[in-house]
Structure formats: structure tokens, C-alpha cells
Amino acid sequence: MARFAIMAMLTLPSGLPLRAADDLDALNGQAVQLYRQGKYQEATAIAEKVLAVAQRTLEAAHPDTLKSLHNLATLYRVQGRYTEAEPLFRRALAGREAALGGTHPDTLTTVNNLGLLYQAQGRYTEAEPLFRRALAGREVALGATHPDTLTSVNSLGGLYKTQGRYAEAEPLFRRALVGCEAGLGAAHPATLQSVNNLGELYRAQGRYAEAEPLFRRALAGRETALGAVHPVTLTSVNNLGGLYKMQGRYAEAEPLYRRALRGRETGLGAAHPVTLQSVNNLGELYRMQRRYAEAEPLYRRALAGAEAALGAAHPNTLTNANNLGLLYYEQGRYAEAEPLLRRALAGAEAALGAAHPDTLRSANNLAALYFVQADWPAAAQLWQRSTGAIVRRVQLGALDPELTGRKRSETEKFNWHFRGLVKATFRLAPEGHAPDMISAREMFQTAQWALSSEAAQALAQMAVRGAKDDPALAGLMRERQDLVDEWQRREQIRRRRLATMCKSATRRWKRKIASIWAGSTSGFPRSISG
Which domain holds residue 435? Predict the structure, then answer.
């Protein structure tokens, strides 16, 4: 949860005219209090009034004006009003940089929250440098264990989790949790946010036994601290339901999903992006139980709402398209399924990359659709791409296995990609004939990888236990982990440099286009009348 700028908590009598800065602070205090209670619409009404007064009575660069801009932008963001939030955040950031400097704590708060906005919009490459800037600045200005610094740690970890960069996310989430527990206490909302975040990471990795106590702790703590209908509490309700769904505990998941959906519809509105996630989640639960008639209208509502609120290319929209396509596939409605699954895969590759877990799932779904329609070449081509990405992730240590014995291997989680590739390739051969030698060799290697990686994980688990008494083996394990850490460090450097190069190239292209346009239009009149 984003940090809302802290202001004095005062009470302003109803109807009192705004005549002094103290009155403005009092209204700001009321807005903050309502925000913390999850009453976003009421808080927004006050924040809009505060900003209007500040703009009318104070200079544009006055700290109170900039604070009002930031706070209203934050309220717009949590309500899914992203297009309204961005210009306010940008104005607040530019003003604070000019008035306070680029490393002032208030400036860094706006930097972090603008990053949260970009992440919510699926603009991950723009969010990362903002999160890194806020974290680095806060570590210098406030210290490594300050609550605001830990907020930035959580923000960067959350981005990595969303991008499927789980190995980079986990140490950040662990650092945030340890720091919050030590500095704020086990029951503080910031601590519970860290508990929830680590649980979400474990669930995404299939580490369900580790995720459940974290989700339960976050839910119980939030119900006590915030109340049963607070939007943050409902996030925990939704997350625990999602864990039960993944474990096949459908009877336990459904009341949680229904509670989250009702609460979000009431508190956030039917069209809020978070509400639409609950709509999609309930549809997914019904699909997994083959309750197709109940699932379809939910999927359709989620997809239409996400397209309107987030745009056609947003990762959430693409997930909804994938899920509706998967529903049609399971019903044998292949002609309706294919365009949705193709759209989901193309969009995920563009937004998330070829090796992201969501992209791999979309590739598998489309390949399975081609397979059941006997389009062996198309199915094999997709599974070749996805298995190659899975193998590279494991070889590079980007995800599992981490030699701990706790995580499921990538090949186990994406087992169907390997099995499907073998089946599709053998069906490519003429009837009564074996595949050609090259294909046969590739399929043998694929099957060998799928099996050997599981065996390797078992051996790795034994190595962990044996290394305690074997200095040589322990040294090898440390060397392997050092190499993984070094690769991850270099990968982060590569990503940052690539982002910088892209920005520089974009600026050059824009200048060139502007120059060409100016030259090509110089002979035309400035206005044209009919």
C-alpha cells in the first residue's frame, strides 16, 4: 500500500470558512483519515476541495499546494482513475524537485507513488527506475530501516514479482518484513503488507504450504486493525481465496471470493480494476469446477471492464482474454477461443516478455488448442518456444530450483509444455514412420531435460543436507549460488542500461521526426478553411 503524505490530524467544524492555513491543514487531515479508513470517495471529495482552495489562495510552488496535488493523485490512483492521477503526480513531482530538491523525502514519496501508478497501468519499464530512485534516495536520506525506505523496498519487490522475477523479489520482501517487524511491530499495517507480499510471492511459486500461514496472519491482522470491509482487508480475503483455489479447495475458496467481490463492489465500485479482478477470479473458480454457464458472464464482464478501465494491452486485460479463451477451449468452442488466446499471447509477449510465467501459460493454452485440432506444426512451434524459455530460466537461476528443497521446479510447474512438445513432434511424422533424426534427437533431449531436472532437484536437496559435513560440497554449492547472484546482478545492470539506451534513442527519433515534419509542412498555410 502506498504511503500517503502524513499531515496533522485536526478536525474542522462543518461549515467553517477556509480563511487560514490551519483550516487547510485540518481538511487535509480529514482526507488522510478517511483514506486510511478506506473511505476513498469521501476522502476524494475533501481532497478536491483542498486542492481548489490551495490553487486559489497559494502559489503553485507552495508546499501545501504540492502536498494537495500529491494527495489527490494518490486517491485517484487507488480508485483506478489513472488518467486523472498522472498529471497531478507529474505536477507534484516537478514542483517538489524545484522547491525541495530531488532527494528530499517528500520528493521521493512522489517518485515512489508515480512508480506505483505506472505499475498499475502495466508500464513496468517506466516504474522500475522510479522505484530504484526512491529506494536509493531514501536509504541515503532516511536510513536503511526507516519505514519509508522499507516501503520502497516493498514497491521494488512487488514490481519484480509482477514481472516474474521471483529470485530478485524474495530478498526484498524478506528485508521489508524483517525491518517492519523490528521497527513497527508485528501488527502494524505496513508489517502486514509485507507479510501479504511474501505470501503472494510464495503462492506464485507454488509454495502453498509457506504461503497459507502468511495469508492467514495478514487477514487476521487486517481485520483487527482496519475492519472487515476495508479495501486492504479484502485484498487479503481475495488472496487467501486464490490460494485455496490453486490447491483445489474450491468449497473454501468460493465464500472468500464472494466476500471480496461484494466488498469491492460496495467500497470501490463495479468498474474499479480491483473489483474486476475479483469478477475474473470468481469466474476462474467456476471454470475450474466446470460451472461454465456461471463462469462465462463473469469473464465477459471482467474483460469488457478491463478494456474500458485499463486498455486493450494491459496485462490484466490480457489475462481476462486468456481466461475467456480457455473457457471456450474447454467447451469445444475452438473458433471463439483462438482469437482470444492469440491476442493474449501476443500481448503478453509484448508487455511481459517471452519468458514471463503469464506468457508461458498463454503459449501453452494456444498450443493445446492447436493440438486438439490436429494442427501439429503450430502446436509444436509454440511448445518449442515455451520449453526453450523454461529451460533458460532454470539454467540462469532466474527462478527455481534454488537448492533449498522448498520450491517446485519450473519443469514441474510447466510439465505440459514438455509433454505436449514430444506428442506434437511425433505426430508430425508421416503415419507409420518415426520422426526424422533431428526431431527425434530434440525430443529425446526435451524428455531428458524434463526428467533430469526433477532428478537434479532431488540431488540438490540431498546436497543441501550433506554439505554440512562436506566442506568441498559446501564450497561447490556456495560457488554455484555466487554465480547465480552474479548473473542476477549483471542482468539488473543490463536492464537498466537497456532502459537508458531506449530512452535516448526515443528522444533522437522524436527530434528527427519533428525535424522531418517541420520541413515537410513548411510550404502549407497555417490554417485551412473550407
Answer: 410-474
